[in-house]
């Protein structure tokens, strides 16, 4: 008797002060949990979670590379970071909260959770460096929506593509989730085989 594998998945996006995990910092995080079971894909939008990390305001511009700082000014993240009325998380507390949520969603002993998102190897590198305990729960496998998008546009060059979001964590996660839905709906087995032959 064979058992259909269950894949626990987290759509995840980080906004950071730059591109280097060992030199730069996490500013914002968003997750959206999902599961694959056989041919069924379930996403738990009511369990979506977004958090801004508490970062010293006076060190913000110094610790951001110029491109990242300008981008976060335009998308409103800098304004949210300096706004005292918006709740912030200490990074260690945020890591504990993520583990708590993973335990609730997937079980206390769930391991090998796959991250999903656009160029999510970037986010995984930051998680490994800044949240090593949480990283232990994650798989080395990832669902890179950038790859999915490349395949999708190759098979359906005339298809409409969702516009890229403005680089806020929650927007990026929802964008990745939308790409996954489009991919699943379009690539039915008969269509895929016909397109590839």
Layout of helices and strands, plus pairs?
Blueprint: E1 6-16, E2 26-37, E3 40-43, E4 49-52, H1 60-63, H2 66-75, H3 77-82, H4 91-106, E5 113-117, H5 120-130, H6 132-135, E6 138-144, H7 145-155, H8 169-186, H9 189-196
Parallel strand pairs: 1-5, 5-6
Antiparallel strand pairs: 1-2, 2-3, 2-4
Helix pairs in contact: 7-8
How would you describe this structure to a colleague?
With 197 residues, the chain is of the alpha/beta class. Helices cover 45% and strands 22% of the residues. Strands 1, 2, 3, 4, 5 and 6 form a six-stranded mixed sheet that branches. The two termini are 33 Å apart. 27% of the residues are buried. The model is unreliable at 190-197 (pLDDT under 50).
């Amino acid at each position: 008797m064979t058992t259909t594998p269950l894949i626990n998945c987290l759509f995840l996006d980080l906004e950071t002060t730059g591109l280097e995990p060992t030199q730069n910092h996490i500013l914002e995080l968003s997750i959206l949990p999902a599961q694959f079971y056989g041919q069924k894909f379930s996403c738990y939008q009511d369990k979506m979670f977004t958090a801004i990390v508490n970062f010293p305001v006076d060190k913000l511009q110094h610790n951001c590379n110029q491109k990242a700082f300008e981008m976060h000014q335009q998308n409103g993240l800098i304004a949210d970071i300096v706004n005292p009325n918006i709740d912030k998380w200490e990074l260690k507390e945020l890591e504990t909260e993520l583990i708590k949520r993973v335990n609730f969603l997937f079980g206390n002993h769930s391991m090998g959770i796959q991250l999903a998102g656009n160029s999510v190897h970037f986010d995984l590198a930051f998680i490994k460096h800044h949240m090593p305990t949480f990283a232990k729960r994650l798989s080395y496998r990832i669902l890179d929506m950038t790859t999915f998008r490349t395949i999708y546009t190759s098979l359906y060059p005339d298809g409409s593509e969702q516009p890229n979001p403005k680089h806020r964590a929650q927007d990026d996660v929802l964008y990745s989730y939308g790409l996954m839905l489009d991919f699943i709906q379009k690539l039915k087995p008969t269509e895929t085989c016909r397109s590839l032959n």
